[in-house]
Amino acid sequence: MERDDLIVNDSYSLAAHHDEEHGKKLRKKIVFVTILLTAITAVEVAFGVFVKQNSDMWPFVKILFIVLTVFKAAYIVMSFMHLGDESKNLKYTILMPYGLFVLYLIFILLQEGTYTSIMDTLFH
Predict the structure, then answer these.
(1) Distance of alpha carbon 84 from its chain centroid, rounded?
(2) Is 23 within the bounds of a domain?
(3) Whole-angstrom distance, CA of residue 94 vs CA of residue 86
(4) How far apart are CA 39 and CA 16, in angstroms?
(5) Other residues' Cβ atoms within 10 Å of the Cβ of residue 48
(6) 31: pLDDT confidence band, cut at 50, 70 and 90?
(7) What digits encode the pLDDT tens for the residues 80-89?
């Protein structure tokens, strides 16, 4: 049965000539990203399993979770959405609003957390 979705002479998929070296480089990058993200996730899970929530280390663990999650998200965007191959100005144009938004969320979290604890001490 002949495929009718391909134009044999002008199809991009048939005209793309990638050599084996290019394929090896892409596979190596995918394996590296997979191992890196798996290692970071394993660190997060290990801290979540072994550190008790009422211990002195728990605030550090929460900050570590946030930092590692943001790092993983940025690395996924850079690798799989090909933002890492773009110019520095385009990267900053795309990532800076998200960075500012995360800083804003942290500011709101700290402000509201402080407000709640002050109100609890005043009225209870």
Answers:
(1) 13
(2) yes
(3) 11
(4) 34
(5) 12
(6) very high
(7) 887 877 888 9
